[in-house]
Amino acid sequence: MLSYVTTNPGKVREAREYLSAVESVDFDYTEIQADALGPIAARGAREAYEYVGGPVLVDDAGLFVEALDGFPGPYSAYVEHTVGVERVGRLARDAVDPETPARAHFRCVLAYCDGGTFEATPEPVDHGDRRGHDLAAAERATAETDDSVVGGDLPVKLFEGSVPGRIVEPRGEGGFGYDPVFEHDGTTLAEMSTEEKNAVSHRGRALARFAEWYRGREE
After folding, report:
1. How far apart are alpha carbons 22 and 25 in whole angstroms?
2. Which of 60, 114, 147, 179 is catalytic?
3. Are 178 and 68 in contact (CB under 8 A)?
4. Residue range(s) defining the domain that contains residue 159
5. Could you read off the pLDDT of 15-29 as tens digits, one per residue?
6. How many domains does the chain have?
7. 28 noted as active-site residue
């Protein structure tokens, strides 16, 4: 059984569209401060594996606005609660010419750990020692933690999903977080049904990549 560390039932339902056997686990892992999603999710996966004692999946996600140099990025949840979604939307739109779209991406990184090692594949592997390996330089340079404390150098496999869009005036009553100000193909995520949103979801795209790889892992 694969344990998905989340208390969000919507994430579990989405994961079950791609994975046959997955259960949710409520575990409050440490969210380190980093300028990229990968190290945050990787540290969480190591802690979760130590807690669960079996295969685990942890995700971290954020909104990356091009005109704001990727802000709020990994700090999206904190910024949502302190600055507010509408204000972030205004900052993004004010940062570009009125005729220029305020381009942005939603990104999600899934981190998988089962205590084992991984064969070489295109997906990055976080080995926890920050000396290179397969992590992109931008990710490996930003983690501010001592991985020898929890999880040691347990390898963690990373899978990323991204959906492009632009920041607009808030529209729609559905979704959550930045969904009302993020438009994809002419529709904000808050205007989409759950099925429509899942079909283009950054998390869904990461889950699809992970599920394809994980089927081979189980064989």
Report:
1. 10
2. 60
3. no
4. 2-218
5. 998 998 899 999 999
6. 1
7. no
